[in-house]
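Question (not urgent): is this output format expected?
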Amino acid sequence: MTNHNLLNEPIINLRQPPRFIAVEGPIGVGKTTLARRLAESLNFHQLLEKAEDNPFLERFYANQRHAALSAQLFFLFQRAQQLSDLRQSDLFEQTHVADFIFQKDPLFAKITLDSNELELYNKVYEQVQVDIPTPDLVIYLQAPVKVLRDRIQQRGVNFERSIDTDYLEKINGAYSEYFHSYHDSPLLIINASEIDFAHNDQQYEQLLQYLLEIRSGRHYFNPTFF
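Got this back:
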C-alpha cells in the first residue's frame, strides 16, 4: 500500500489519470455509483445516463414487447443529444467520467426488438451517431445475475423490481460477449460481485492506484480484501 491517501489527496498530482473514463456494465452492477465517485475523486465532469427521464421505461419493464422500441429510441436520442451538446461546448477538451459508451446502445436493441423494429432502429442509429473521442479507459463491471437481482431489489426502484431473470441473463450475456472482443480502448475488467466501491474505501483506493498505471491493453482488477 502506498503512503499516499488517494481519498484525501488530489490524485491528479500523483500521476496523470486517463482524461476520459467510461464505466460500463449491466443494470444493478454499480456503474453509476463508481462513475460518480471517480468523478468526485478526480474532479472530473460527470456524464451520466438519465434512466429516470425515460417515460417508457416503466412500461418496458412491465411488458417488454409493448414498449421496447419506444424505450430504446428514447435512450438512443438522449445519449446522442448529451454527446452532441458536449461536442458543441468543447467539454471533451476537459476531463470527464461517463457511465456509458454510446456504441453499446445496439446491444439492448438486438435483445428487445423484433426484426422489423430492429431494422428501423439500425437506420435511426446510423443517422444519429455522433463523433466522440474514444475513451482513454473503459471499466467493465461484471457480476452474476443473482448479484444483479439482489442489488436491484436493494436499491428499491419499484418498477425495476419487475425485471425478470431471463432478461437479466440475456443482458449479462450480451455484455460479456461485447467486451470479450472489445479493443477500441484500454479495458479494465472487474468482477464486482464482492466489491463495494461505494462504502469500502480500501478497495476503492486500490482501484484508483491501479487505474493510474493503465495505458494500453486488457487488465483485470482484484483488490486485496481487508
